[in-house]
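Bench notes, afternoon.
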Amino acid sequence: MIEHVYAVKRLFKQENIFFCVSGPVSQNLVADIATLIEQKMMIEQTGKRKMLRVFAVVVEKLQNIMRYSEEKISSPSAAEHEQELSVGLVEIGYEGENLFVLSGNLMKTDNVEPLRAQLSRVQTMTKEELRQYANQKRKAPLPEGSKGAGLGLIEIAKKSSRPIEFEFEPVDDRLSFFILKTVI
């Protein structure tokens, strides 16, 4: 295993990835990552507007992992009761002058097509259409069994400088790995 560490570092350098976290996600981790991103971008003198967009997208993607990832681990919390943490992946890097945020997590394969339809719709919308769609979703009742109004994906798309990209990699009969890329 140790021989792969430098290969991973070289891959990150080749792909211009400056930050990656893979594993369980908690609200504390979200706050820590936000602080690290802010410090990195201040050092690199990234514009405030771009920094806020990256920050918002990263937080939204981490929250989506916490809500929707099918990969879970149990961990005793400080309160000595079991806490279930969701597992996922977030990478941040440069693509030319732009920043990108990649995220990934396991999801039920049964949910792939509805999510693909929603993402395809959002992918083709203009900023104004996204704003109107978000307002429409806010006013609509939540679908039964929903964990949210689907606003997170819309907000991510609104902050993107070009259409979002996504992919679903089949893992087995039950699970797929959902990948979402946002360029800012």
